[in-house]
Amino acid sequence: MAEKAAWDFMSTYDGPTTLTTILPGAVFGPILSTGNLGSVQIIARMIGGRMPGVPRIGLEIVDVRDLADIHIRAMTSDAAAGQRLLATGEFTWMREMAQSLKSGLGTAGEKVSTRQPPDFAVRISARFDHSLRAIIVSLGRRNRHSTDRAKRVLGWQARPAAQTVVDCARSLIDHNAA
Fold first, then answer.
1. Residue 178's pLDDT is what?
2. 77, 89, 130, 166: which could form a disulfide with 61 (CB 3.0–4.6 Å)?
3. Residue 175, exposed/middle/buried by CB under 10 A (0-12, 13-18, 19+)?
4. 3-class DSSP string for 122-162
5. Burial zone of 59 (CB within 10 Å; 0-12 exposed, 13-18 middle, 19+ buried)
6. Which residues lie closer than 8 Å to 145 by C-beta, 6 or more apart?
7. Domains plus CATH for the chain?
8. CA 56 to CA 28: how far, in whole Å?
9. Residue 153 has pLDDT above 90, yes or no
10. What are the b/e assignments for 144-154, b being 16+ CB within 10 Å?
11. pTM of the full predicted structure?
């Protein structure tokens, strides 16, 4: 709604400012502080052993550093004016995230579960664990959006999801947030 309001405003605005919107995927990567962990809490729970299994859910992971990069590129490029750009990274199943953490963290990844319960078990568990209810609609769903415009207009490319997930975990460990 906020993006639509911004585009509506710009359609009647007659000033020197232009608008570009950046729409990210699931944002992970190194943290600056523990003040607002947001989506990286998923990785903190995984490395802390607080996720006994990983549901069959996939995410289009973008590194926070790549997200900052695309914003800078958009602010400094006339070609980005008036564009709506997707900043999603590669699609990764949560099980793949867990495997990346296990293999990339060594002993720090020992508590990460790569066990994937069947979808029906997650649905049944959601009846008792209200935190699972929101993810039910995403079970097995494979979303994939194109970042071709961001590549073409800005030369932007997201780094590999496995690198982002492991870098995020290391950062959480360094900040004692896992």
1. 83
2. 89
3. middle
4. HHHHHCCCHHHHHHHHHCCCCCCCCCHHHHHHHCCCCCCHH
5. buried
6. 25, 60, 86, 88
7. 2-6+21-116+144-174 (3.40.50.720)
8. 19
9. yes
10. eeebeebeebb
11. 0.89
